[in-house]
Design goal:
Largest interface: A-B, 42 and 42 residues
GO molecular function (chains A, B, C, D, E, F, G, H): hydrolase activity
CATH class of the largest domain in chain A: Alpha Beta
Shape of chain A: globular
Oligomer: homooctamer
Number of domains of chain A: 2
CATH architecture of the largest domain in chain A: 3-Layer(aba) Sandwich
InterPro entries (chains A, B, C, D, E, F, G, H): P2CMN_synthase_LarB, PurE_dom
Protein name (chains A, B, C, D, E, F, G, H): Nickel pincer cofactor biosynthesis protein LarB
CATH topology of the largest domain in chain A: Rossmann fold
Number of strands of chain A: 11
Low-confidence stretches of chain A: 43-49
Pfam families (chains A, B, C, D, E, F, G, H): AIRC (PF00731)
Largest sheet of chain A: 5 strands, parallel
Strand order of the largest sheet of chain A: 8-7-9-10-11
Structural class of chain A: alpha/beta
Amino acid sequence: MEQKEMIDLLRQVASGTMDVEQAALKLKEEPFEDLGFAKIDHHRAMRQGVAEVIYGEGKTPEQIFRIAEAMKEKGQKAVLITRMNKESAIYVGEHLELQYDEVSRIGFIGEAPIKDGDGKIVVATGGTSDIPVAEEAARTAETLGNEVIRLYDVGVAGVHRLLGHLDELMEARVIIAVAGMEGALASVIGGLVDCPVIAVPTSVGYGASFGGVSALLSMLNSCASGVSVVNIDNGFGAGFLASRINHIERRTKE
Amino acid sequence: MEQKEMIDLLRQVASGTMDVEQAALKLKEEPFEDLGFAKIDHHRAMRQGVAEVIYGEGKTPEQIFRIAEAMKEKGQKAVLITRMNKESAIYVGEHLELQYDEVSRIGFIGEAPIKDGDGKIVVATGGTSDIPVAEEAARTAETLGNEVIRLYDVGVAGVHRLLGHLDELMEARVIIAVAGMEGALASVIGGLVDCPVIAVPTSVGYGASFGGVSALLSMLNSCASGVSVVNIDNGFGAGFLASRINHIERRTKE
Amino acid sequence: MEQKEMIDLLRQVASGTMDVEQAALKLKEEPFEDLGFAKIDHHRAMRQGVAEVIYGEGKTPEQIFRIAEAMKEKGQKAVLITRMNKESAIYVGEHLELQYDEVSRIGFIGEAPIKDGDGKIVVATGGTSDIPVAEEAARTAETLGNEVIRLYDVGVAGVHRLLGHLDELMEARVIIAVAGMEGALASVIGGLVDCPVIAVPTSVGYGASFGGVSALLSMLNSCASGVSVVNIDNGFGAGFLASRINHIERRTKE
Amino acid sequence: MEQKEMIDLLRQVASGTMDVEQAALKLKEEPFEDLGFAKIDHHRAMRQGVAEVIYGEGKTPEQIFRIAEAMKEKGQKAVLITRMNKESAIYVGEHLELQYDEVSRIGFIGEAPIKDGDGKIVVATGGTSDIPVAEEAARTAETLGNEVIRLYDVGVAGVHRLLGHLDELMEARVIIAVAGMEGALASVIGGLVDCPVIAVPTSVGYGASFGGVSALLSMLNSCASGVSVVNIDNGFGAGFLASRINHIERRTKE
Amino acid sequence: MEQKEMIDLLRQVASGTMDVEQAALKLKEEPFEDLGFAKIDHHRAMRQGVAEVIYGEGKTPEQIFRIAEAMKEKGQKAVLITRMNKESAIYVGEHLELQYDEVSRIGFIGEAPIKDGDGKIVVATGGTSDIPVAEEAARTAETLGNEVIRLYDVGVAGVHRLLGHLDELMEARVIIAVAGMEGALASVIGGLVDCPVIAVPTSVGYGASFGGVSALLSMLNSCASGVSVVNIDNGFGAGFLASRINHIERRTKE
Amino acid sequence: MEQKEMIDLLRQVASGTMDVEQAALKLKEEPFEDLGFAKIDHHRAMRQGVAEVIYGEGKTPEQIFRIAEAMKEKGQKAVLITRMNKESAIYVGEHLELQYDEVSRIGFIGEAPIKDGDGKIVVATGGTSDIPVAEEAARTAETLGNEVIRLYDVGVAGVHRLLGHLDELMEARVIIAVAGMEGALASVIGGLVDCPVIAVPTSVGYGASFGGVSALLSMLNSCASGVSVVNIDNGFGAGFLASRINHIERRTKE
Amino acid sequence: MEQKEMIDLLRQVASGTMDVEQAALKLKEEPFEDLGFAKIDHHRAMRQGVAEVIYGEGKTPEQIFRIAEAMKEKGQKAVLITRMNKESAIYVGEHLELQYDEVSRIGFIGEAPIKDGDGKIVVATGGTSDIPVAEEAARTAETLGNEVIRLYDVGVAGVHRLLGHLDELMEARVIIAVAGMEGALASVIGGLVDCPVIAVPTSVGYGASFGGVSALLSMLNSCASGVSVVNIDNGFGAGFLASRINHIERRTKE
Amino acid sequence: MEQKEMIDLLRQVASGTMDVEQAALKLKEEPFEDLGFAKIDHHRAMRQGVAEVIYGEGKTPEQIFRIAEAMKEKGQKAVLITRMNKESAIYVGEHLELQYDEVSRIGFIGEAPIKDGDGKIVVATGGTSDIPVAEEAARTAETLGNEVIRLYDVGVAGVHRLLGHLDELMEARVIIAVAGMEGALASVIGGLVDCPVIAVPTSVGYGASFGGVSALLSMLNSCASGVSVVNIDNGFGAGFLASRINHIERRTKE
């Protein structure tokens, strides 16, 4: 795509529609808008096929608002804000129509997306404490147009709880396995199914869980094939990737 | 599937085709063959849709041979052996028709697979030293029926080398980014494309690369979305997962 | 046990007492109750021979209450809640008859257990600061029907304090050694007795104790035989395991 | 016991059977024999109820021989040598009647032990490569008078392989779960049974397994209760502890 | 310089202008002023060519004030205070003319410096959250007499944002690359330019970023040449070193 | 000493002055007083030649008071309390005559000690922020009867500050080098003097200082001989050990 | 520069000298030559102002030869090969005129460079064992046209050895401080001079030096300003960066 | 001392005995001899009161010989060489009269030292495998004029072995506690005695001993006072420091 634009640009220059300096300028300045503290990437939506996402952590309420506003003005239909604290949600909510979920700390601005995924995404957790991360994944995926099935508290210490949901697991297009502590959920699921499994280690645990390191290592060392891993507590990353895999047919058809 | 078999079994018991003790026995014993030192999982091929894989590291030449032989006898058409050293390759090659590649340390027994993937898989490396891991990924994917494009030595220290291959990257169904040292390749690729990127950290490097930890952490912390990570040097895992994603349409159609 | 139930189920299907679909359904759904955020495992009590345990950390007061309530309704006689903060204790205490101990943060609902262990369990600590973890172990064991002897502040820097309690140590069926800092208590006790020693590293200490890592490594490297280790600060795990060992005769007799 | 001996000693002094200086001397010198480079602990056999064990690593063939010889001379019926390399086995075998197993690197001198354990010990491994550590555990337990059942290659990536052996697991008195990589075996077994589970992480794996750290952390963070952990590759420690638990009735009866 | 002073001193002694004991005393006591809790190094300004710097962290408001005051009294024209919290800024501001910037937590006392650097310094950040560290670097450099160009939020996940500023990068005398998470910014910039690049890892990120370790390792392993690294979040150090490099001509001419 | 007491005890038994059971009892119970949560070691004062020390961290104000009170009652002339927070100081101060220093968090009860050390102890710090740890060391040493010289803020970044105090360093009997960050102070001092140097790493620093790990490793790897290290921030340990070395003549003369 | 080339290209297209598709092609393919296993970056020499460098580790003798040969053919006057083992040196030396130094493992092909640096570079080491890394730095710098002064074995344990070379240190344009173990050399030098100091931690040491981590952390935490750090044992990186700083005037003048 | 020399020098300059330039030269060049690869510190013997020591690791046989030879020529009576491999011992032994011990890898050239220490040094080890490190400590101490008592294999798993040597421990002037694995020996000894204890962690162990880290952390966290720690396997450092403490009276008398 970008390659094509470059060729287009060259073509315009060749045909005299655009002069050289302007073309160079265009190449340099066009793709993003500079707010000083942030450079908004209006091309990315096209290039990467999704709504623009704002990572809320470390940004002030006002910064989040100004980025979201600039996106809306450029015609962005949907804006997803992750790691958004309550204070930011209140501030942004006063200026823009924001839907906010406290458990996953996800904010959403815009039209409800059409569920146009190729199949279903299953989000499973080892325990109850993993739910906030799982919800970040699930809601991200839903925002990006996916149908999500939640299987919470199906950890391996009672493997029959998981086996009781074989049907849902078997039918999934992608599975997101969210677990802290020993993180064995990803391996056991990975051994049962034949779809891609995205493992999300969580910082749930204490002592030698070292803030999620134990689950992370477990998942990286999974003896089951078809499992890949994202950062500790990175529900968004898992939901985003799952959506990408779940829209793979649609994308290639277009 | 397994669920269905269980229901079938129950049906046979209900209809009197099978008696109770035998059913229990069947449930317990059928799915794998016990060689004493290894339990071969003849169900997995069906359940996971792929050729059986033997992880060669830590197994004696004779153990590898006996497992492979047992698989062949059960009708397995293709057997993939990873992390196979030369000694094992020679031993197994004396008894079975083995194709062996020294760079990737991959052995293959059986019929050449049909390239039936939905699209193409790109395997890119940061440097020349990452090639053995990349080849493990590439050959695994090829063995599982995928068309693979290799882009080697396109690391970020000369970002134009990568940009020169935008076409191949843009058309890929899945990209495997293999890099050691600072592992930035995955992030830069992840920022350019809209398909899933599987990052493989390698143990290439010295000093503070800590045997691949530096690249691993880099990739887990990638600021680009759509990137997930497998274990250090786990070319097989990346190739296997890429194949799964690249067969996702085919699988659901069947 | 579960195996037996499966065979029973198969028998019922064979005899026509149960039809096939229901049997499959039963296999899938029966063992746990789904509260949405948690799946209560009513089988586990039978299968593992103990009262159900609720891990309180990361659960809201209401979640704890609802899980406990569901257990009581299913006929569970005793419910143990660990890592329960004061807020939860107050909330649950308003609805159910709860006994709560602030030091160990343990809550207990139900009838006082009969002390039916095979012998006595000794819980020893290196220092005064290790007492909360030790109490979690001791009260867990008591709740599960064990007689517990407490030997607190007998650390190795004054080895005669420990030697002064040789009698109690010698007579124990199991010993739980709780220590932070250098964690040498487990080794010294392990060298004196001939019963199993369960070592619990604690996060007590500062600087190079790294939140319990120092004690954990010490205990894992114990030069005394018969010592095994649980997670840092995992008093519950040690108490539970000690109880299991202390009921081993009873269980096999039944 | 030692306490009793001390009282006996005091009694002899009180009755005039022994004079004071000799008593002090006896207290000081009696319990071990000094070979210069090693102090053999002839009391330990009595005090800890087992054959004396020689840890072979870091000892020269001659040192091992001299320690074993001194034990035999003092009347020790059985001597177990762990981590014994082939060179040592050949040297010791020239002087004493040694049984040596290469896989587990265990040497044994003396009479075959009577299988006098209270029940059976199951030793399970995740994969084929874990067998050397498992054999160290199994043979240690056998040497100490236990009946051992081996379940090798039953890792969680194919959870049905494990479920196929529910009978053996259910009937075990103690289970030793040996696994490298993600070490999930201990959790899954721990969730199925109600006997003590001793987890042995192995150094099997590569990359982010960090020589067994991944499995170690996994096992320490096991969400299943009743699981405790020994050092990486410490098959001996697991076998020894399992034997202790499996002789607990016998011991208390004596 | 110091060497020269020593020779001067020796000369004075030789010529009788100074006697021996006084010379020894002078050597010992002269170079710093002792406030009890701090020894102010009045020589350093001369020896190292810069304004004295006070590292504010871990110092009380009063301590900072007293050190700054003593410097002013000795004739120091400019005092830079880093890691200064608001409380200290208020306290010091009541007694001395202080300029304070909250984002970078930098305080400045004295005359505005002349911009006498040889060229320009570019300060680039990967994201918005890295700005406080970048501002510490930028303001330090400005205080030391440098012209600074800020390029914020040009991280590698959208490499075109960076490429859009090639002109500024190409013309820089030194570049400071500030990034958290995967820290790839330094490598990509290092591959584009031919001036020294100072990489500053930041503690921005979560999970496996481990408080900046991920970015630190990434930068140390940079495959681009010409990159060196300072401590995590050490904006001051980067700004100081950049200034030193940017005054290198001036210094040698003097 | 203890050995002697045992012989005395045996003598009394032999002579009939004491009967056997009482002797055993005495051996077991005498050396410490049991407060339930703490076992006070009244022998230690004699055995180790110092005032009893209470480690205040992790103890409640009441626990500290009760331990101190019990010591006073047994005739202890001086009690030193380390890591004592203000709350505890106020509580204990209401019941006993306590001297409390906020910087070092040290409390002292009892008579001022006589300065009876063999020589002088120098306590040096790298920076101003290291002073609290240094004061813990200095006051501990003073409490134990030592003359202490403080050399604060003499870090190696201005090596002349240190060289200006060569006299004091040369005359010291023991030197305590307290430093955070890169901890080079210990090496530089160690290279200048010929007395024992006790290095105390502090948690002063940020980023890659990892809470004192950087200084700790630096000090352990010191290329200067005669340097040993205590735990991070362990001022007490350094002061105590320095006092022991500084009383070594006195002790042997007695 | 690259920006300028792009504008030139656009100009040629505008003037009709080049057509659009060829321009796009040129942009994509021109900058590097593809050997299959390596992409040689012929632009980099121009863009980065230095001879091309081949990192020899992990490359076969033949690969090194073929890369070097391709460079020579494209007109590269000087080729520097780092981490070159003896085997590679012999192989390459048979085909090309190679100068090889065994201590630094550096190979050089081409004309002797003119010493055109702005000043002198000092390379200092803490000990004798650091010399190989120091030589890699020194020879890299010399190859890039710098005058280098070597100060070896001037570690801080004998600070007067360093002070004896104050003249050379004071006159240096850049200093490279190479040290293992506690790595304090960089801080002490950094405190004495006012030029940039590049710190190179080495893997020299044992035990808690952890292969260079101790020195690395020390250097990152240096309390002296003006110090930056490269990877452990990265002599090349330090030499390259030092050369860049030492040619900064020359470069800006051109 | 050095301070005194400086004053002497100044006096000579003042009196005209020496002129200024020569004095400056003398200050700079006199204290060490430059062999190119090493700077021998002939002042250190005087300044630090001991024989010069050569650290053999990382030095070639010839380098060791040349340093030792230069020392002998300058009149050094005794030279101690640590970490000396056999090859070096043979080479040096051909040219100089060398005594070499293979276990401790210590070489010694010169006259037998007089045992002039104030008391005795005890060197204790936890096990047999710790002996090489212990011997490095013991022989270093003997070479420096100390009487050494060896207590080997007295680890805490059999605490009575240690208690049997209370007499020797009680009478020691300094104790060196050498232990690997869990390193508890230092704490137990530290709790029994009132002299300084120098703890030496060893790399003996496997798995979670992490090459001595476990013992190192244990020792740093020792709950016994009076314990300090040196680097892993640093027998020399412990022996050297012990000697320093054991000569403290002698030194101050002179």
